[in-house]
Each structure stands twice: as structure tokens, then as C-alpha cells.
Amino acid sequence: MVSYFLTVFDQSGEKLYDESFIATNNSQAKEIGLRKLKELEFTEHTHRCVTADGKLLLFHR
């Protein structure tokens, strides 16, 4: 199990959402991250999903 971090920003760079979660691999983490973004209606906001060691999995500007 690996820790991942999902963060969403507004246009000024302020955090709108910041959550950590656990997944078994990067593929599952991408699925979880995308599902959360859709649930919270943040798919068009700037966002990123990274591993605990900083590897970028998702990014939208």
C-alpha cells in the first residue's frame, strides 16, 4: 500500500481541496483520484495527484 495526495487549487493558487489516501498501485490511485475529482466537481480546476515521494500521477492546469 502506498500513500497518495490529491490537491485542487483555485485560479489564485489557493488550495480548495487537499486529501491523502492509500492505494495498492499507481493505476488504482489514478482511478481513485479521478473519481474524487468527479464527485467533488473539480475536474476542470487545477489539480494534481502525487505519490508520497513526489511522483506526479495526475495534473491538470
UniProtKB/TrEMBL annotation:
Protein name in the entry: YhzD-like protein
Top-level division of the source organism's lineage: Bacteria
Q: Which InterPro entries match?
A: YhzD
